[in-house]
């Protein structure tokens, strides 16, 4: 099965965005064997949440409330003073702090946190993921990370991440929570919305609800 424009629109993607992403989505899904109603629906559902309906291709790190920043990154922002300093420094300072020395990134001073911030419909994050995706897809994502924010790079890196984390197998069992954990980590942010969008997509594809 190949995803169609009508399916993306029925799943909740605005027509303009659906047209822009249709061809690269089709290519990514063919490449990574995302070809059954369940696999397509789960993939679209997760990407809908990660990218706010295929409209946001870069992670929003524009935190204005220090308490909110601490709540999202408690181990990286241990106190109010640190949170306030980072909020005052803006998104770049925040990214370099919260993503420092993990996900293959260098320390805070290296700038890797900002350089390899979340991009694309999956919000690919961290030097390791950019490097591995670059090798797998033969693309210069390490040197040109902004390519991941373009429709082709956004879809192909999302498909690659889905494949390496064996999400097709989880989709076959319709284990949406396990997919959410693989995509978003133990925080499982917006768990309910991910299931909601996945259910909407599977209905659009098959007229059925697998939940």
Descriptive account of the structure:
The chain folds into 2 domains: 5-57 and 149-206, no CATH class; 66-115, no CATH class. The chain contains 12 helices and no strands. The protein has helices at 5-10, 15-31, 37-50, 66-72, 80-89, 91-98, 112-115, 127-137, 151-164, 167-172, 176-184, 191-206. The longest helix is centred in the first third of the chain and has 17 residues, at 15-31.
Number of helices: 12
- Helicity level: 55-70%
Q: Can you summarize the main beta sheet?
A: none
- Oligomeric state of shown chains: single chain
Beta-strand content: under 5%
How large, in whole angstroms, is the Cα Rg?
Answer: 17 Å
Order of helices and strands: HHHHHHHHHHHH
Instruction: List low-confidence stretches.
Output: none
> What structural class do the secondary elements suggest?
mainly alpha
Question: How many structural units, i.e. domains?
Answer: 2
Q: State the shape.
A: globular
**Distance N to C terminus:** 20 Å
The average pLDDT score comes to: 94
The counted number of beta strands is 0
Topology of helices and strands:
Layout: H1 5-10, H2 15-31, H3 37-50, H4 66-72, H5 80-89, H6 91-98, H7 112-115, H8 127-137, H9 151-164, H10 167-172, H11 176-184, H12 191-206
Helix pairs in contact: 2-9, 3-12, 4-5, 8-9
């Amino acid at each position: 099965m190949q995803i169609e424009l009508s399916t993306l629109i029925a799943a909740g993607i605005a027509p303009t965005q659906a047209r822009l992403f249709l061809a690269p989505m089709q290519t990514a899904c063919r490449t990574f064997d995302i070809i059954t109603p369940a696999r397509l629906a789960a993939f679209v559902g997760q990407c809908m949440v990660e990218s706010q309906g295929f409209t946001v291709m870069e992670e929003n790190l524009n935190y204005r409330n220090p308490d909110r920043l601490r709540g999202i990154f408690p181990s990286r922002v241990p106190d109010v003073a640190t949170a306030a300093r980072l909020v005052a420094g803006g998104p770049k300072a925040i990214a370099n702090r919260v993503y420092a020395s993990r996900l293959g990134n260098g320390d805070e001073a290296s700038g890797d946190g900002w350089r390899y911030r979340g991009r694309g419909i999956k919000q690919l994050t961290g030097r390791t993921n950019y490097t591995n995706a670059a090798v797998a897809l033969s693309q210069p994502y390490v040197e040109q990370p902004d390519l991941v924010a373009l429709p082709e790079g956004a879809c192909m890196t999302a498909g690659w991440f889905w494949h390496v984390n064996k999400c097709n197998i989880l989709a076959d069992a319709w284990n949406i929570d396990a997919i959410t954990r693989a995509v978003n980590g133990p925080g499982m942010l917006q768990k309910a919305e991910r299931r909601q969008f996945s259910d909407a997509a599977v209905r659009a594809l098959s007229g059925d609800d697998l939940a």
